[in-house]
Amino acid sequence: MDPIRNPYAPGAGQRPPELAGRDEQLTAFDVVLERVARGRPERSLVLTGLRGVGKTVLLNALRSAAVRKGWGTGKLEARPDQSLRRPLSSALHQAVRELGPVSGEPASADGITHVLGVIRSFAQREAGTDAKLRDKWSPGIDAPVVRGRADSGDVEIDLVELLTDVGGLAADVGKGVAVFIDEMQDLGADDVSALCAACHELSQNGLPVIVVGAGLPHLPAVLSASKSYSERLFSYQRIDRLSRDAADRALVAPAAEEDAEFTPEALAAMYDATRGYPYFIQAYGRSVWDLAPRTPITADDVAVAGPEAETELAVGFFGSRYERATPAERDYLRAMADAAVAASDDGVDDPVGSVATADVASVLGKKPQSLSPARDALLKKGLIYSGERGRIAFTVPHFGRYLRTQA
């Protein structure tokens, strides 16, 4: 098969040629946009799921839907070592620019200038009032700083004021604003609390601003620990692996565009190999296409390409994460993989390898307390997560299987 025409695209956040299995989320978001535009109450949205299920891809697709509706949009990726002020200021700067004045009306132009000044005030407050000029970061805004608004230094107060002003502007120009936050679980505790408070204020005032976050499965617990009302503040949607029909469509539709097809047996073999995880589907699709001699692609072609696809996953998907762990942390990860198999009824762990921390300690022959540093470091690195007290799981599907093959 011609590799130049290969339609499959494994990559971090890279949109696949066919966004299969996400019609329900896209349709529901269209309803949210319409309701907010009509002044109806609506909750912000949180997408959760493992690595490789397409959360970032879906987040970008939802943003595109908002852009098509004429909304102002901005996106940021949270990082555990970074305050929310700077990236959120840049995202809101872009969203306000996208709103633009309505029919050149001076009132809306003045409103935009005011809000841009508030964004600049919010951004520069991180450096402190006595900071030198070179330390006062500016998100490229020409509007003068609005003193006394969103610059108190208390991020919760400041964020409520900032998003209230942004929402007021959006309402004045008859549009909406959507802020998209990837890796939302990496926000600091103060920033999470501030974001929840701001969303609560926006919903009470009926302002056309929504937040769409994406993160790992424990993100709802992070939000709930910050504000008890967050369970009612957001609409939570779990993004999981694709059904068999959706997985087949993710393979068949791009192939048909290139005048190629799969046999039914090949599609069954592909699902057995990928288990419906979108990143795995793209990785296998790429390898199978490159190695298949002709169309239709058969089950034998899938078998031949399997080792190359697994090598691609081992290096680019599993290995890059494994290399981030220290020797002690790797021992902990391998113990998790062994404990998951031991705890299963059929000797095969589930895709996320959910296990009790006590079982991991038992495998290593150590007390659970002595393993806390390794566990906490892995949690911070995003390699594992804790969905409930006393249990942990891999953030990457089938990571345990990879670890056992390495052993």
Description of the structure:
This protein is an alpha/beta fold. It has 3 domains: 23-238, 3-Layer(aba) Sandwich (Rossmann fold); 244-322; 327-406, Orthogonal Bundle (Arc Repressor Mutant, subunit A). Helices cover 53% and strands 10% of the residues. It has helices at residues 23-37, 55-68, 85-99, 106-124, 155-172, 189-205, 219-226, 230-233, 244-257, 264-274, 278-291, 299-322, 327-343, 357-364, 372-380, 399-406; strands at 44-48, 72-77, 177-182, 209-215, 234-238, 355-356, 384-388, 391-394. The strands form 2 sheets. It has a 5-stranded parallel sheet, sandwiched between helices. It has a 3-stranded antiparallel sheet with strand order 6-8-7. The model has no long low-confidence stretch (mean pLDDT 89). Residues 1-23 are annotated as: Disordered. Residues 171-337 form the Cytochrome c domain. This is Cytochrome c domain-containing protein.
